[in-house]
Every structure is written in structure tokens, then in C-alpha cells.
Specification:
It comes from Agrilutibacter solisilvae. Keywords: Signal. InterPro entries: FG-GAP (IPR013517), Integrin_alpha_N (IPR028994), Peptidase_M28 (IPR007484). This is M20/M25/M40 family metallo-hydrolase. The protein has 717 residues and is an alpha+beta fold. Among the domains are: 301 residues, Zn peptidases (Aminopeptidase); 147 residues, no CATH class. Helix content is 21%, strand content 28%. The protein has 14 helices and 38 strands. The strands form nine sheets. The protein has an eight-stranded mixed β-sheet with strand order 5-6-10-7-11-14-12-13, with helices on both faces. Strand 28 and strand 29 form a beta hairpin.
Length: 717
């Protein structure tokens, strides 16, 4: 992003012990100014112009502010522009906290002109009423529901503990504030490793001192110009000093919010989530001194005409003492439609867990969501239900606000629902040649060598492709071998041992692969065994039982595997049965009925499975029928026509399927043809050429497809 530097002054706060001192100029009776000027290189007596509400001003802030002038904000509400000294900013924040029992309460600028211009350009009214989307829909439970049990309280506590103990403070003008940003960036980079669609960087502004904001961007697949934001603020502030250094652990305010966002990132990316919309995670700098980091970022998005469709703020998530509700939704300076969406998210995903919600009026500029509102974007703010009594003090520790992070776990679940339902999900369907999230069908005529593609299993989108009349060339597998998000067709010449790849199922993009002249080598399966984002070729020799893996389909990168000499053991499927983003190899003994899984495609991770000694049962296919992120095994009985699925590859979790007594019906393919994240079963009749589809494996949803009477046409998978 192009960074637009706000003309805000880098200022430091001065600790004032004892009574509030109203001072528009002159000396420094506490003697801190000289020390601060020397250590930070800024003048604590510099003027700052704040914008605050008339009510806050009248409530006692007027004792700190000079040159006050009444104005109106974008919502038509009474506000005041006034001057304050830099060293009084932390005192101002503490005063608002103690008098109004809330946080924040003002924007800060270097000049009065900038403050007035901010009000002139304020888009609060538009933001509160704006419909960024025609509707905010809740229809992605297949993504969200499996996430929620994965949130770990211990991980959130570890992050809060680090941020609140490794740094004396995270104050924006101090080196420790900068170090906290550096640590967080490194942590987020680690969570997004090996993801080309994920980037992490700094956003600076001239008013943010030494501390940059940290932003992770997960690029949307199909709607990248629509942006979803989840944020918290990284800085901390206190009125206490030890040996001239601010003592501001800031565990609840707002290490809890940053830790919550970090856990949301971990859970979402660990499951390989790819959103349709771009999702940005933000840790704002300099929130405690006038929302400077978020203001700079929101203003930049406004200048770039960015389409931000929703912002969720997480500022203080871990204190619930004495409350009858679990969290509260801020009702003012937020967007009506987005608030309703957040309420529905809570009721859909958190209420069934026994959690309850309330409503809270936060006041003017109480947290970073206000920056987005002022920039014209829809924002929402969910906050802990009880105001933590030790904000902005040395006692803001996890021991006092927790002592566990149980409350923050609930906020993480809400934020996961927010990004899952607003960011949506790009479902990576198998056999998807055009990356539209829907599986395609690759047909090959074993008599003529003709080849066809049915996009999304629809004959109306039939696309003829090049014929391969030399029948020694066999299509032996389909997967994404080049990692571009589009599946490729792997060909092998049964006479010469040559191998070719049709990228995206197109002969025009044919790529020769290495030759295996010994035609005893057969492709047993394709899968991403190393979580590299591209499929590997799992080879097995038909005579010797030797096994090797071509990493990424590259004959120059060969990994040997343990030999399986007995031909009775056969590879009957490849899939990610445990949802760890590594594909596994499914083996079945055709004589004994024993079953094994090689996790990650290696015998070192061999896992014995429940035996099925009736060898009339065969593995018909592999796919994620229930959309939980783990592949299931579909069994068919070749004597009775019975069918059953082992969910996540476990015999203990079976899903019944209807029997098809006519054994001429063959399970021809498994794919997500409607793009709903659940695998569908494609049936083909071996004699009549009839075709049917069972969405999610349910015969009750049966769809009759176009008939292909010539039974020489077979489906490659």
C-alpha cells in the first residue's frame, strides 16, 4: 500500500504523579520534560490539538485544554477542538478513563488546521448508515464451525504474557514500542509461511513515533478488491514510571486484543483457508495518544478509494468480572447493518456455547473503529463487558485481568466467524481446471482417443480438447502439479515410459516430464505430501513393489520410500484424512482385507486402520463429503451394492449411503461440482451410459445428468 503520512506530530507523554495539572505553557514542575526531551528527542511541551466530544470536554477535560472552540462532527454532534501539551496526553487518557469509565475519547493532530479539516471531511454519518454490501450473509458454517474448537487459550495467554512482560511498555515513542512491533511482525510472518497470497508488513505515519503498525494481508481469490479488516492496538500507556521509564504492561489494554487476533490468524491459516475477499489483520500503533495508527491506515484506504466492506475492532477482550454477559457490542459510531451482522454471528456461533451478549455506548473516538467510521467505512466493535479497573496502570497484568484467557477465547471465536462469513472461502475443489471452486469432469474415449471436459459436471459447458489417438498414451491422474491453483492432467506412455503434463488440462500448455523407461513403474497416486502447495507423484513398481516420489512432479527431485513387495497390497486412494494439509496414502490388502494409511505418503508415519475382511467391499472414492476439511472414504460392496462412507477415514464415524443394487452402476468420480465445499459422487452406468450425481453423497438430492451412451467414454480421475 502507498503510505500517506499524516501530518501528526510525534509526541511523548509525561507521567504526572498526583493532581491533574492544567498548563498551557511554561515550566515543568515535576522535572520530567528535560529527561524526556533527552531520551526521546521530542519536546513534551509541544502543542497538540485534540478533537473530543462536548460532553467529555464539559466533564472535566476543559481543565486540561486551552483555546477551545465548539464544532460539529460528521454526525452533527457537538465536539470541541482544543489545545493540550504533549506531556498531558497520558493524563488526558487517564482522566477520561476515571471520570467516564471508558477508554480513548479523542483524536490528536499537530495543528488546529488539521483538526478542523478532519471534521470537515468526516464521513461518520455515511459510515453509520452505509450498506457496504447488499446483504451480510451467514452461509459458510462449513468453514467456521471446524475452526472454533481449535482456538487455544494457552496460546492466547502466551502472547499476552510476552507482550506484557518482555517490554516495560509498548509506548509508541519508545524503542520498546518498536521492538514489540518487530516481534509481532516476525510472529505473523511465521504463521503465514509458504503462502504466496499472504504478506506481512509495516505501516508508518509521521505521528506514530518509533512504532509502526503491523498489517497482515491475505489476498482474496475471487473478490480481492473487497476488504475485510480485523484489528487491535499494539501500544500501551501508563501514568507510572520506574527509573524514568514508563511502566505500562498493558495486558488487557490491548495485548489481549492483539493476542486474540494472532490466534485467529493461526487457526485460519493452519487450516489452509483462502478467502474470496481480501482479509487484513492489523495491530495499530499509537492508539492511546489519539488513534494515530488506525487514522493513518483508514485515511490511506479512503484516499485509495478502497472498498472496505467491514471492520471489526478488538480492544480489551479478557476481563469479565462481575458481568452477567460475555461481551458487549458498541452501539454508537458504528455501522447499523454490520452491527446486525455481528449480532447474528454471535447468535449463530457463540450463543449455542452458552455465551450471552449486551450493548454498550462507548462514546466519541473510544477506539480504532472510530478511525474507520470517520473515513466512511462500516465498523463494529465488540468489547469486554466490564471495564478493567487497572487500565493505564502498572497493574494491567494477566494475573489481574484473567488470570486465564478464557474470555479472549470467546472473542477469537467471534472474530473467526467474522472473517469466515464476511471473507467467505475459496473451496479448492479437486479436478478444477479453471480455479472457479467447482470440479470439472475430464472424459477420454478409450476407442477413438478423443477427450472432452464438462465444466462443473455440466454437459452445457462441454469443452472439447485435443485428441490423443496414440492409445499408448494414458491419462493416469489429475492434480495440481505446478501449484497454480488449477489442476493438471498427467499422461504416461505405456510403451516408452515418457510422461507429459497438460497444465490446466490444455494440450497447448503441454510440459514434458522426465521419462521412466521401465514401464513397470506405475502412477499409484497424486497428492501434496509435503504441504508445498503442489502435488507430488507417488510411483510404485508393479513387479518389485519399489516406491518413489517425484516431488512436485519433478524427476530430478526423487524421494525413495519403503518397498511394499506384496502385490496384494494396493494403493486405493490418496487424500488428507486428518485435515493437517498433508495428503495421505490409503492402502488395502485385496486378500486379507487389511487397511493402512501412510500419513504424508511415508511408511514412517504408517497407521493401521480397521480391517474390512469381506473383500467384496472396495474403496470407490475419496472426498470430503461433509465439508469439515478432512477427506472421507467411500466404500461400495461389489456383491450387494451397499455403500457407506468412513468420515475422516475412520470406521468409528460412518455415514450411511443408499444402496444401488444394480452393480452396473459404477462410482466414476468424486468432486465438488457445485462449489459448496462438500464432495459429490458421480455415478455412471457401465451398460447404458446413464450418469447421475449425488450431492454430498446424498441420494435424496440425486441429479440426473446427460447420458453418454457410448460407454467407451470414461472419466479420468
Amino acid at each position: 500500500m502507498r503510505i500517506r503520512h499524516l501530518a501528526l506530530l510525534t509526541l511523548s507523554a509525561l507521567a504526572l504523579s498526583g493532581a491533574v495539572v492544567a498548563q498551557s505553557g511554561g515550566g515543568d514542575p515535576h522535572g520530567h520534560a528535560g529527561a524526556l526531551r533527552a531520551s526521546l528527542g521530542v519536546d513534551p511541551m509541544s502543542a497538540v490539538y485534540i478533537v473530543t466530544s462536548q460532553a467529555t470536554f464539559d466533564g472535566g477535560v476543559n481543565a486540561l485544554v486551552s483555546e477551545a472552540a465548539a464544532q460539529r462532527d460528521g454526525a452533527g454532534r457537538a465536539v470541541v477542538v482544543g489545545k493540550i501539551r504533549a506531556h498531558q496526553l497520558d493524563e488526558l487518557s487517564r482522566f477520561i478513563h476515571e471520570r467516564e469509565r471508558r477508554c480513548g475519547g479523542y483524536f490528536a493532530f499537530a495543528t488546529r488546521k488539521q483538526a478542523v479539516q478532519f471534521l470537515r471531511e468526516d464521513r461518520t454519518v455515511r459510515a453509520m448508515q452505509r450498506k457496504a454490501l447488499p446483504t451480510y450473509t451467514i452461509d459458510n458454517a462449513a468453514t467456521v464451525a471446524p475452526w472454533l474448537p481449535l482456538v487455544r487459550e494457552s496460546r492466547i495467554s502466551d502472547t499476552i504474557t510476552h507482550l506484557s512482560t518482555a517490554y516495560r511498555n509498548r509506548y509508541y515513542a519508545n524503542t520498546t514500542g518498536q521492538q514489540a512491533s518487530q516481534w509481532l511482525k516476525s510472529t505473523w510472518v511465521g504463521l503465514g509461511h509458504n503462502r504466496p497470497d499472504v504478506s506481512v508488513g509495516y505501516v508508518t505515519c509521521t505521528g506514530c513515533g518509533k512504532q509502526p503498525s503491523v498489517v497482515m494481508t491475505v489476498l482474496g481469490s475471487s473478490r480481492p478488491d473487497e476488504i475485510v479488516v480485523v484489528g487491535a492496538h499494539l501500544d500501551s500507556i501508563s501514568d507510572s514510571y520506574i527509573n524514568g521509564e514508563m511502566n505500562a504492561p498493558g495486558a488487557d489494554d490491548d495485548a489481549s486484543g492483539v493476542a486474540t487476533v494472532t490466534e485467529v490468524i493461526r487457526v485460519a491459516l493452519a487450516k489452509g483457508w483462502k478467502p474470496q475477499r481480501t482479509v487484513k489483520f492489523m495491530a495499530y500503533a499509537a492508539e492511546e495518544v489519539g488513534l494515530r495508527g488506525s487514522h493513518a491506515i483508514a485515511d490511506e484506504h479512503q484516499d485509495d478509494h478502497a472498498n472496505v466492506v467491514g471492520v471489526l475492532q478488538l480492544d480489551m477482550t479478557n476481563y469479565t468480572a462481575g458481568s452477567t454477559v460475555s461481551m458487549e457490542l458498541v452501539s454508537d459510531y458504528t455501522n447499523t447493518g454490520l452491527n446486525e451482522f455481528v449480532r447474528k454471528l454471535f447468535d449463530r456461533y457463540l450463543a449455542p456455547l452458552g455465551l450471552t451478549r449486551g450493548v454498550y455506548t462507548c462514546g466519541y473516538a473510544c477506539s480504532d473503529h472510530a478511525s474507520w467510521t470517520a473515513a466512511g467505512y462500516p465498523s463494529a466493535f465488540m468489547v469486554e463487558p466490564t471495564l478493567f479497573p487497572y487500565l493505564h496502570t502498572p497493574n494491567d497484568t494477566l494475573a489481574n485481568s484473567g488470570p486465564t484467557s478464557a474470555s479472549s477465547v470467546n472473542f477469537a471465536k467471534l472474530a473467526l466467524a467474522f472473517i469466515g462469513e464476511l471473507g467467505k472461502t475459496t473451496h479448492e475443489a479437486p479436478v478444477d481446471f479453471n480455479a472457479d471452486g467447482r470440479s470439472d469432469v475430464f472424459w477420454r474415449n478409450l476407442s477413438t482417443g478423443a477427450n472432452d471436459i464438462w465444466r462443473s459436471a455440466n454437459v452445457l459447458t462441454r469443452t472439447p480438447t485435443n485428441s490423443v489417438t496414440a492409445m499408448a498414451w494414458q491419462a493416469v491422474g489429475i492434480d495440481d502439479l505446478d501449484g497454480d491453483g488449477r489442476e493438471d492432467v498427467l499422461w504416461r506412455n505405456a510403451s516408452t515410459g515418457a510422461n507429459d503434463l497438460w497444465k490446466s488440462a490444455s494440450a497447448a500448455t503441454r510440459v514434458p516430464l522426465g521419462t521412466l523407461a521401465d514401464t513397470g513403474w506405475r502412477v499409484a497416486g497424486l497428492g501434496d505430501f509435503g504441504m508445498r502447495g503442489a502435488a507430488d507423484i507417488f510411483w510404485r513398481h508393479a513387479t518389485t513393489g519399489q516406491i518413489q516420489v517425484w516431488v512436485g512432479g519433478n524427476s530430478a527431485v526423487v524421494e525413495p520410500r519403503a518397498t511394499v513387495a506384496s502385490a496384494d497390497w494396493q494403493v486405493v486412494g490418496v487424500g488428507d484424512f486428518d485435515g493437517d494439509l498433508h495428503d495421505d496414502v490409503l492402502w488395502r490388502n485385496r486378500v486379507t482385507g487389511s487397511n493402512e494409511m501412510w500419513r504424508w505418503g511415508t511408511s514412517e508415519r504408517r497407521l493401521a486402520m480397521t480391517a474390512v475382511t469381506n473383500t467384496a467391499w472396495i474403496v470407490g472414492g475419496v472426498g470430503d463429503l461433509n465439508g469439515d476439511g478432512s477427506d472421507d472414504i467411500i466404500w461400495r460392496n461389489t456383491s450387494t451394492g451397499a455403500n457407506v462412507a468412513w468420515l475422516s477415514g475412520r470406521a468409528a464415524t460412518q455415514m450411511g449411503m443408499s444402496t444401488i443394487a444394480d452393480l452396473n452402476w459404477k462410482l466414476a468420480a468424486v468432486g465438488d461440482y457445485d462449489g459448496d465445499g462438500r464432495a459429490d459422487v458421480f455415478w455412471r452406468h457401465a451398460l447404458t451410459g446413464q450418469n447421475e450425481l449425488w450431492p454430498a453423497g446424498q441420494s435424496s438430492l440425486r441429479q440426473v445428468l446427460a447420458r453418454v451412451a457410448d460407454v467407451n467414454w470414461t472419466i479420468v480421475r
